[in-house]
Amino acid sequence: MPPHMVKNAYLSAQYHRLAFRRGKKRAAVALAHTLLIIVYHLLAQEEKYQDLGGTYFDELDREKKEQRLVRQLEKLGFEVSLTPAVSQA
């Protein structure tokens, strides 16, 4: 799949995060700015692009996101208690 079609990528996550908060047009401009910054650093440092992944923003401040989601569910009338999932290795 071509790089511009990847849905689980940092740039896609950034666009959707910004589009939700600021609108599609501002998100597109912000994404263009991010692309310019990435290209500049790739050219200046002569490195390959390393995608941070589509879950980068979720993992950035996991505890804060958990608290926000719990508050949203409580506002909707749910009683919430979080228990970590058992990882299957």
Radius of gyration of CA atoms, rounded to a whole number: 17 Å
Q: Segments where pLDDT lies below 50 for 5+ residues?
A: none
Form type: elongated
> Number of DSSP strands?
0
Give me the strand/helix succession: HHHH
In DSSP terms (H or I, runs of 4 or more residues), the helix count works out at 4
Q: What's the story with the biggest beta sheet?
A: none
Structure explained in plain terms:
This protein has 89 residues and is mostly helical. It has a domain at 3-60. 61% of the residues lie in helices and 0% in strands. The protein has four helices and no strands.
List its salient traits.
single chain; 89 residues; mainly alpha; elongated
Write the layout of secondary structure elements.
Blueprint: H1 10-22, H2 24-45, H3 56-60, H4 62-75
Helix pairs in contact: 1-2
What is this entry, summarized?
With 89 residues, the protein is an all-alpha fold. The chain is built from four helices and no strands. It has a domain of 58 residues.
